[in-house]
């Protein structure tokens, strides 16, 4: 049985991500989903944050437990017999709690929304998604609010020649293709004239044919990938975090507005 971890802040965006996770679980059956909430403050939290965010009072914890139970009930109608749903609450700061959870159990995916219920929440949830992407080896799916839950059939890998695909990353991609029974297409964006010749190392690492590799000439990486994904009806955008490439351009920490990424295609991050 494959497990999916869904961090939640009880916003509509998080609920949407939970529904997406259920759709994913129905595809990789049998599977289990854990709705996960961590309420601890990071050690470096300043006084302004302390005044806004709830603490670990019994009243707050009871409220979280009540909300979790309501979410589980509301999502029950979308479950099938081969998909289980449970909940977990942790008093550690978010990243410590995620690391503890992924050490205690083997998860196939982490599924998160990209914004929270308020401007402050949007910054924290967006930052949390980026922190998870940069610190965990569990594949992360970032679900924008415009992405409707649907079966994943076509995965578009936003590939950059500057960033080599590591053996463990290639293994993770092969594993998810098998789990989802999905088709992979690789696209590389360059400012130079496209050649459409896949690198030999890439062909050796992934189960693709030359016809599944495409190069596009464009000056804007993000725009080119999103347009091509729409034209090819991709269900998922696969990216690798690093200094270069689609992930770096789309979710660069200095570009706060990009944390509200709202295209209609979820982004799968394999570290």
Please tell me about this protein's structure.
This protein is an alpha/beta fold and 271 residues long. The chain is built from 9 helices and 10 strands. β6 (154-159), α6 and β7 form a beta-alpha-beta unit. The two termini are 22 Å apart.
**H-E order:** EHEHHEHEHEEHEHEHEHE
Q: What's the total count of β strands?
A: 10
Q: What portion of the residues fall into strands of 2 or more residues?
A: 15-25%
Radius of gyration: 19 Å
Overall pLDDT level: 83
Report the end-to-end length measured between terminal Cα atoms: 22 Å
Could you give the order of strands across the largest sheet? 3-2-1-4-5-10-9-6-7-8
Helices, by number, come to 9
Offer a concise description of the structure:
The protein is of the alpha/beta class and 271 residues long.
Helices, strands, pairings?
Elements: E1 2-7, H1 12-27, E2 31-40, H2 47-52, H3 58-75, E3 83-93, H4 94-104, E4 109-113, H5 119-135, E5 140-143, E6 154-159, H6 167-180, E7 183-190, H7 200-205, E8 213-217, H8 221-231, E9 236-239, H9 245-250, E10 267-269
Parallel strand pairs: 1-2, 1-4, 2-3, 4-5, 6-7, 6-9, 7-8, 9-10
Antiparallel strand pairs: 5-10
């Amino acid at each position: 049985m494959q497990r999916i971890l869904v961090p939640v802040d009880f916003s509509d965006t998080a609920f949407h991500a939970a529904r997406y996770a259920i759709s994913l679980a129905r595809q990789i059956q049998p599977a289990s989903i854990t709705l996960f909430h961590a309420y601890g403050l990071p050690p470096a939290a300043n006084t302004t944050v302390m005044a806004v965010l709830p603490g670990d009072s019994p009243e707050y914890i009871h409220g979280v437990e009540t909300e979790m139970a309501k979410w589980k009930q509301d999502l029950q109608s979308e479950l099938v017999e081969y998909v289980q749903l449970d909940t977990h609450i942790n008093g550690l700061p978010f990243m410590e709690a995620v690391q503890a959870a992924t050490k205690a159990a083997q998860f196939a995916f982490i599924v998160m929304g990209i914004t929270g219920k308020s401007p402050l929440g949007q910054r924290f949830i967006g930052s949390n998604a980026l922190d998870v992407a940069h610190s965990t080896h569990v594949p992360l799916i970032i679900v924008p609010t415009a992405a409707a839950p649907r079966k994943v059939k076509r995965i578009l890998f936003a590939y950059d020649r500057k960033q080599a695909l590591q053996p463990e990353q290639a293994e993770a991609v092969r594993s998810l293709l098998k789990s989802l029974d999905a088709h992979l297409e690789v696209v590389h964006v360059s400012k130079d004239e496209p050649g459409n010749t896949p690198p030999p190392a890439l062909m050796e690492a992934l189960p693709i044919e030359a016809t599944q590799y495409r190069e596009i000439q464009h000056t804007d990486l993000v725009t080119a990938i999103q347009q091509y994904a729409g034209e090819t009806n991709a269900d998922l955008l696969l990216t690798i975090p690093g200094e270069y490439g689609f992930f770096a351009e789309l979710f660069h920490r200095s570009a706060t507005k990009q944390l509200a990424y709202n295209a209609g295609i979820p982004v799968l991050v394999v570290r």
